[in-house]
Amino acid sequence: MITLRLDLGERSYPIYIGSDILVSPACYLPHISGHHIALVTNQTLVSLYGEPVRKMLLDLGKQVTLIVLPDGEAFKTWHTLNEVFDQLLVAGADRATTLIALGGGVIGDMAGFAAACYMRGIAFIQVPTTLLAQVDSSVGGKTGINHPRGKNMIGAFYQPRAVIADMHVLTTLPRRELVAGLAEVIKHGVVADAAFFVWLENNIAALLRCQASALAYAVQRSCEIKAAIVMQDERESGLRAILNFGHTFGHAIEAGLGYGHWLHGEAVGCGMVMAAALSRRLGSIDEATYQRIHRLIQAAGLPVVAPAFTQARYFELMAVDKKNQEGALRFVLLSHLGLAYVGGAAHEIVAVTLDHAMQAPSALA
Ligand code: NAD
Ligand code: GLY
Predict the structure, then answer these.
(1) Alpha-carbon distances of 254 from 36, 179, 185, 333, rounded to whole Å
(2) Residue 362 is assigned to a structural domain of this protein
(3) Percentage of the chain exceeding pLDDT 70
(4) 240 in ligand 2 pocket by Cβ < 6 Å?
(5) How far apart are CA 136 and CA 161, in angstroms?
(6) Whose CA is closest to atom 5 on ligand 2?
(7) Using a 6 Å cutoff on CB, does residue 184 contact ligand 2?
(8) In terms of DSSP bridges, do strands 123-128 and 162-166 run parallel, antiparallel, or are they unpaired?
(9) Half-sphere CA count of 307, side-chain side, radius 13 A
(10) 47-95 tens-digit pLDDT
C-alpha cells in the first residue's frame, strides 16, 4: 500500500492506494470519530462490497446504519439526497456519526454533500470503487448533486477524512466504466504532465487489459497530480479550474442528452477532443498536438464525435457553466501538452468547433 497526503492544514488527509485494503481496519480506524457509522452505497455495490465492509465495521464494535441508494447518474438528485437525510435522522445520527461513501463518483459526490450539510457537517470517508472515482472524484472535496438545468450545480467543497482506494475492486468494474475512468486519467496528463501523457500513449493497451501494475500507476500518478493542484487552490479560485478540461462541452453533452445516457467520463472524453480542437483553432496548440490527444482518447475507446444538438442548444447548455463570468463563456484551453489555462473564445470560433465536432473530426485543417 502507498499513502499520499493531501496537505490542507487542519483539513489534511491521507489517500491510501493498495490491493485488498477495502476491509483493512488500519485505513479506517484513525478517521472514524464516534461509535455510529452511516455506510452509504448503492443497490449494485451493496451486494458486491457492502457486506464485507459492514462486517469489518461491526467487528470493530461500531454501530452501522446501511443506506442503500438507487444506482445511476439520474439519481444524483435533490430527492435522493433527501432520502439520505431522512435515513440519518431515523437512525438517530448525530454530530459524532461518521459517514462512509462506498461507491463511484455518484455516491461519493452525493454522500459527501450529505455529510457537508447534515447537522452542518459530519466526518466522512471516501471509499471509491470506480476508476473514475479513484483517480478524480474522491480526491479534492468537491461534493454535490445535479440540477435539471446544469451538472453539479448544487454542492459544497467538503474534504473527506481519508480516501481508501482498493485496486482489487476494479476487477468487477464493467469495461464501459473502466473506459470512462480513463478519460479523467488522460485529462491529468493533458493539463499537467506531458511525461504522463507519453506514458499513457505507451500503456493504453495495458490499461484496457486491466493490467494491475499499469492501473496502479495510473491511479497513483493521477492522485499525485490532482492533490498537487488542490493543495495550491482548494476552492478553485484559479489553477484548479484546469481540472475542468473538456468539462464545459462534456457537461453540456450530459445535460443535453439527459443524465445517464452518456457516462460522465464518456462526455468528458469527447469534450476533451472538442476543447483541444478549440485550442487548435485559437492557434494555441499545433495540429500534431491536437492529433495526439484525439488519437489517445479514441484509442481508450471513448467517443470522439459529439451528439448532434443544434449550435444554439450547445450554447444554451454551456451558459450555465460554473467557469463563466458576467455572461461570457470560458473554457479550459491548452498552451501545449501538459499546460492549460482558462480563457474565452469568440462565438464564431466556438460555433465552428461545435459544427466540426458533430461530424467526424480527425484533421482540423
Ligand atoms: P458511478 O458512480 O455512476 O459508477 C458507475 C457504475 O459502476 C455504477 O453503476 C456503479 O454502481 C458501478 N460500480 C461502481 N463500482 C463498481 C465496482 N467496483 N464493480 C462493479 N460495478 C461498480 O460513476 P462514476 O464514473 O464513478 O462517477 C461519475 C460521477 O462522478 C459524475 O456524477 C461526476 O459528475 C462525478 N465526478 C465528480 C468529481 C469531483 O471532483 N467530485 C470529479 C469527476 C467526476
Ligand atoms: N474534477 C475536477 C476537480 O475536482 O476540480
Answers:
(1) 37, 17, 19, 20
(2) no
(3) 98
(4) yes
(5) 16
(6) 243
(7) no
(8) parallel
(9) 19
(10) 999 999 999 999 999 999 999 999 999 999 999 999 999 999 999 999 9
> Taking the model in full, what pTM does it have?
0.97
The residue whose CB lies within 8 Å of the most ligand 1 atoms, and thus the one to mutate among 177, 178, 242, is 177
**Total domain count, the chain:** 2
Tell me the three cell numbers of residue 208: 484496457
Rounded distance from Cα 133 to ligand 1 centre (Å): 6
| Alpha-carbon separation of residue 336 from 104, 250, 356 (angstroms) | 31, 21, 21
Q: Of the candidates 76, 177, 193, which has an alpha carbon nearest to the alpha carbon of residue 131?
A: 177
Q: Of 157, 172, 187, which marks where a domain is finished?
A: 172
**Same domain, yes or no, for 167 and 194?**
no
Q: Which residue has the cell 497526503?
A: 5
Do 187 and 129 reside in the same domain of the chain?
A: no
H runs (alpha helix) in the chain: 25-28, 43-45, 51-59, 78-90, 105-117, 131-132, 175-192, 194-208, 212-232, 247-257, 264-281, 287-299, 311-318, 347-357
Q: How far is the CA of 258 from the CAs of 267, 274, 313, in angstroms?
A: 12, 20, 13
Confidence of residue 361 (pLDDT cuts 50, 70, 90): low
CATH number, domain containing residue 17:
3.40.50.1970
* Residue 362 binned pLDDT confidence (cut-offs 50, 70, 90): low
Largest CA distance in the chain: 65
DSSP structure class, residue 325: B
- Mean predicted confidence (pLDDT) in 260-278: 97
Q: Is residue 364 part of a domain?
A: no
